[in-house]
Automatic annotation (TrEMBL):
InterPro entries: BUD31 (IPR001748), BUD31/G10-rel_CS (IPR018230). Residues 53-72 are annotated as: Disordered. The lineage of its organism: Eukaryota, Viridiplantae, Streptophyta, Embryophyta, Tracheophyta. It comes from Eucalyptus grandis (Flooded gum). Its main location: nucleus. This is G10 protein.
Amino acid sequence: MCLVKENPYYGNKQFKQRQKTPQKNHSVTSYPPLSLDLPKPLFSPAKQPILSPLTVSSRSPSGRKSLSRQGISMPKVKTNRVKYPEGWELIEPTLRELQAKMREAENDPHDGKRKCEALWPIFKIAHQKSRYIYDLYYRRKEISKELYEFCLDQGYADKNLIAKWKKPGYERLCCLRCIQPRDHNFATTCVCRVPKHLREEKVIECVHCGCRGCASGD
Ligand SMILES: [Zn+2]
Ligand SMILES: [Zn+2]
């Protein structure tokens, strides 16, 4: 089982507490920043709450290369030629923060972790970013189609993962790897895709991304 003392995916108490706290005091504009709002997290929250706007770390700016090697798309570099759709300023802080977390996760020396575990935070953050954009557009209807498509085009969310979320049975899918038959014994999918009531082991962490179960009914 897990060798790490502090299991980063265990428990979501902190998350629930955070959800209950009403969002106040965004007096700068008439719109509050659009927060992350995951209905049923597959993963427990990161140690720092996603919402806090001032925790973006600027260390380790590299990382683009090795992420793309792992098949995880990274947002394109901001240039002056890019035209930002209306509403961008409301989601930018959260996206920047998630990107900073991604860079941190990527540069983490992951001492003492199993090889597979080193990638878990990266999958988790990639999931969070896509879910953030997806929820804002499809569920909360708080961003325009233009802004949604901009985010996909710029690599802030994974189109292919989102395409799966629209299909019945895949609404909570953790990552694309967990449904690749070639990545699994006997050409099946990952253990995290098996509904909880059909699993012998009730508490699991899948080897690919650390998912603790993402079947739709779980
Ligand atoms: Zn999963
Ligand atoms: Zn997965």
